[in-house]
Every structure is written in structure tokens, then in C-alpha cells.
């Protein structure tokens, strides 16, 4: 009986995780950790992200679609709430500084996202 319950629980959790990923849900809190290599580029007068190990690679998954760019914006806004030194203007410029294309006319919290 316990094995059946464990199997049902496992498949239920797996289905929820897969449904969440399929829906394109953005996990801004988790993404903050993924974007830590860019921390020194996301402040006013910050470093060039190309000179920070892993920064440009951390931003790449957020390119390619409006949903991905919106998720990057949500993640940067979440980071800004936790760390007041995060400068949104500097942070949203990181993809362009890394040479990573983003869709035209995107905005993050009312600010235009710079183009590559």
C-alpha cells in the first residue's frame, strides 16, 4: 500500500512540474540565482557583462521570445526587491551588451529594453 501511495505521489508531482514548465511559467525567484554571475553588471556603472564569467551564458536562456524576455524582466524586478543596489536600467541592458538579440519594442517596468 505504501509503495502504491509513493508511486501515485511521484507521478502527481511529476505531472505538476511538467505542466508548470509547459505553461511557460516564470520562476523569478529561482532565476535570481541563475543570474548571479551578472550581479556586478546589474548595478549603476557596473562591469562589462562580457568580462564576468558566466554572465552572458546566464542571460542566453532569456532570449528568443517575448515570454523569455518578460521572464528576465520579472526576474530582474524580483532581484531589485531583494537587493536595492540592482539598477534596472543597467540590468536590462545586459543582453544587448552580451550581443544577445532580444525582440524589438520590449519594455521592462516601462523602460525600453536596449537592442543588440
Automatic annotation (TrEMBL):
Q: Does the keyword Signal apply?
A: yes
GO BP annotation list = systemic acquired resistance
A GO molecular function assigned to this protein is: fatty acid binding
Q: What InterPro entries does this protein map onto? A: Bifun_inhib/LTP/seed_sf, Bifunc_inhib/LTP/seed_store, DIR1-like
What keywords is this UniProt entry annotated with? Answer: Signal
Q: Where is the Bifunctional inhibitor/plant lipid transfer protein/seed storage helical domain?
A: 12-108
Q: Where is the signal peptide?
A: 1-19
Give one Pfam hit by family name: LTP_2
Q: Give the SUPFAM superfamilies listed for this entry.
A: Bifunctional inhibitor/lipid-transfer protein/seed storage 2S albumin
UniProt keyword Hydrolase, yes or no: no
Q: Which domain of life is it from?
A: Eukaryota
Q: What name is this protein filed under?
A: Bifunctional inhibitor/plant lipid transfer protein/seed storage helical domain-containing protein
Q: What is the lineage of its organism?
A: Eukaryota, Viridiplantae, Streptophyta, Embryophyta, Tracheophyta
Amino acid at each position: 500500500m505504501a509503495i502504491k501511495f509513493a508511486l501515485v505521489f511521484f507521478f502527481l508531482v511529476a505531472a505538476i512540474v511538467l505542466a508548470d514548465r509547459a505553461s511557460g511559467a516564470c520562476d523569478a525567484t529561482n532565476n535570481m540565482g541563475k543570474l548571479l554571475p551578472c550581479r556586478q553588471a546589474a548595478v549603476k556603472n557596473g562591469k562589462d557583462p562580457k568580462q564576468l564569467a558566466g554572465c552572458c551564458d546566464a542571460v542566453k536562456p532569456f532570449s528568443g521570445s517575448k515570454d523569455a524576455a518578460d521572464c528576465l524582466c520579472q526576474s530582474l524586478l524580483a532581484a531589485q526587491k531583494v537587493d536595492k543596489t540592482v539598477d534596472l536600467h543597467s540590468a536590462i541592458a545586459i543582453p544587448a551588451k552580451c550581443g544577445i538579440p532580444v525582440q524589438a519594442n520590449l519594455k521592462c517596468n516601462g523602460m525600453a529594453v536596449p537592442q543588440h
